[in-house]
Design a protein that fits this description.
disordered C terminus; alpha/beta; 19 helices
Length: 622
Amino acid sequence: MPENVSGNIAGLKNSQLQRLEELYTMTTEDSEFVTGDILSLVISVSAETNREISVYINRKGKVVDVSVGDKSTVTLGEVKCRRSQRRFSGVRCVHTHPGGSAMPSDVDLSALDALNLDAIASVGFGSDQETEIYVGMRNHAEPYPGDSSGNYILYGPYSISAISDSSLMEIIRMTEKKISGKASAMPPDTAEHPERAILAAVKRRADSDEQAAESLAELALLADTAGVKVLYQAIQPRMRPDPATYIGKGKARELGLQAQVLKADLLIFDDELSPAQQRNMEEITGIKTVDRTTLILDIFARRARTMEGKLQVELAQLNYLLPRLTGKGLVLSRLGGGIGTRGPGETKLEVDRRRIRKRITDLKKELEAVRKNRELHRARRKRISIPVVSICGYTNSGKSTLLNRLTGAGILAEDKLFATLDPTTRQLKLPDNRPALISDTVGFINKIPHHLIAAFRATLEEVIESDVLLHIVDISHQAMDSQMDSVNRLLADLGVYDSPIITVFNKIDKLDQADRERAADLWRNRFPGSVFISAKTGQGIDKLLEMISLNLPGRMTRVTCRIPYSNASLVSLFHDRARVLQENYLDHYIEIMIDADEETKALAEEFRVTDSLDGGNTNAKT
């Protein structure tokens, strides 16, 4: 029984299929690249159907595969052949270009590398043109004449009779000998190569061209942060994303061909894909497909250093992974009784689901313990009236650099997205000598995954409970407006309404003097009380500290008191709720100097004195 013809055979007549199946009975001589009989049959059926047809021939001269495509492409499928760096596959491909040029396309030539083919021949023909054949081979500095084109050499054009008498098979064998000699002399390549990616996005009707381009540019920065090399970017205008492929089947096939030409091994989408969309895209393009959420989670997994950060990232990853486990689906979740549920036991898929759910439960318990521990710390800070300042803002806006400038924290600060992930808290001394705590939080980003918001709830509560928020904005960024909107939306989602927010425009050192003055006039009107600084150079830092001091509640007043020993419990209260500067134990009273807020100052008013501490008695404690 003859071999079957593969590919797009829908609509072909039985007689046409039978003629194509006859190819499996045809053979070539050792010195023949392809025979005139094979070419004539293939051209005849290709002209009748207006479809590309490819034929694979091995070194023994036997046809091992026949495939049918559409009028512009044909799938160059996986055929049984050798897989070795020292030798070719032992298979050559001959395919048609009905009504088109005989020159091999980029996709044709890329198949040489993808399938390790001996050679690929493209046959161009039409009603008003003569049949021409070009043969492409990889460029290994072969001494035979041919037109060099980058990494490939093209031979031709040949006629049907000329290609049968050519020396192409001799060229293939001699080239293979050279490859074998070079490969044996080269050490094995053990270096880890970065992933090579194509980026894709959908531009909806409501989006402007600038918004779509900015979002895709940010995705490119995320890919660079993750160590991925971006080869190509595509934006597809659509009313709405396609429910099956997100970007549309036609564009999906186009990206698959582009990935083949560029040798990309990863496709990254700018929005979150459903499990079905991700699965369909991988089937169409043949390469791994991920979305923006996966990329961000991967960056977070690399950057988490503390135990809390690792727990939060793992929880977000598992919540994202759970619905994407492939198999029969959630119908297996109720195994254990009733008609249709009796069987051999749990499937591997169900075991995986159960383990993930248990791990998610354990992580939530651990993070709840973290949250309660943070609550205790916040309660203690409230008792002793230590105000808290939180730094928030878009990723890479300069938050960590500002914390280093204000406190000398020495944390990592790089010009990358999410350079620091774990929150850091340091003590800050204000111009009025009040102490305060200042925290750097995780950076925000547009289209931030909701899994991250849920997982980082314990960390983000620091923002909710802080006394003053510093919203850091990169004033030099082209998309500053949209970045500010993204941060404001996330703050609203977190319920941050009551805390005063100081808008801090950072990186003014990147603007010239004229642009700086224009920006200051514009943004001061829109955001009264805003501050313009350069965390890198220190410009405007004094003004920022003044604004923080003015906006923090509980301004401290210095008070000196003489507390009788009968009211000694007040001294203990002052230690809890005020800042004790000096303390002397005298014969009849305790003389103490404190910095206190208005509430604590009212308790001390009865014992307040105006003269300074004498400090001359023994038993003085300072």
